[in-house]
Amino acid sequence: MTKVAVLGAGINGLACAVRVKEKYPNIHVVIIASEFTPNTTGDGSGGFWYPYLCGITSQDLLCKWGSETYKYLYGLWREGGHDLCLLPMFELYREKRELVTHSWAKDVLGYRILDEKQLSYLSGLYSVKYVSGRTFTSFIAYPPTILAHLHRRFEAANGQTLQYRINSLDDKKLDDYDVVINCLGLGAREVVPDDKVVPIRGQISRVIAPWVTNAVMDEDSGNYILPNVHNCVLGGTHQTNDFNRSIVGEDTDFVLNGCSQLIPGLKNAELITQWAGLRPGRESVRLEAEQRDGKLYIHNYGHGGSGLTLFWGCAADVLEIFDKHLTEGRKQNAKL
Predict the structure, then answer these.
(1) Phi-psi region for residue 46, left (φ > 0), alpha (ψ -120 to 50) or beta?
(2) DSSP secondary structure of 273-307
(3) pTM above 0.90?
(4) What does the pLDDT look like over 16-25, one tens digit per residue?
(5) DSSP category for residue 267
(6) Is 175 exposed, middle or buried (0-12, 13-18, 19+ CB in 10 A)?
(7) DSSP-based helix, strand, coil % in the chain, nearest 5
């Protein structure tokens, strides 16, 4: 029997494990991770569908992976009970620039480049003079809820989990597995090893601000405001090659003061928590197969700030690689 190990229990690892196990219920699939929800990096993230910090990953791939994930989130949103918000998102610029229409625009709701009248209205709404921007309707998840949902879905399919820190792809724990699906995120830097993977530090604050109903990305300042069903995420930083997971006072001031400039009422919002985490940055997402010593490794990491944006679409490509592997194996056995 084929045995599959999925490395990493973030949103990409869970999605790959679910897609493989649900399609092949008789195949043994185990998720091996040092941490599981609610203690993963993904649990603390903003949970926003928005292609972000993906390096030079092609627009075609972002469209393919992102659009499939958007459709999946839309289905969950229609079911209800998954702590998903569907709301307008505004990407705004203080400095003039020509904006192109993204290739994925046709697959999301309400996408358009903002005209002068709309920019004038938003400049008054957010207390900053904006001269360029775009909008579309997007999803904001509460990450612990969607991660827990995928975890339950995997267990319902009789998937297994193992809490263990993999140190390398030659780790003895992997000897019994025929296929290894590598979704280690930043951990791939040491485990593969892949020095193209770098931390992109993000620090955010969470406040209680139920009057905020739109997502805002102020691209020139770096601040963003992301309301979800439980609280409102204020951000943020994107500091490359910074491994610091501690809260930095200067970053707190940048986040709170910058977001309060956009919405002055946030000065009165109750601060409930602060968090710093490391996004798995890479020049481009790595999603490909690799043969090592007769074993198939499927790599799926380097998603930058777009884990929740790409996870279901990336898992579909991982499943396609796995399908091909099984098909070729059956053909070889038939010849024998």
Answers:
(1) alpha
(2) EEEEEEEEE-SS-EEEEEEETTEEEEEEE--TT-H
(3) yes
(4) 999 999 999 9
(5) G
(6) exposed
(7) 35, 30, 35
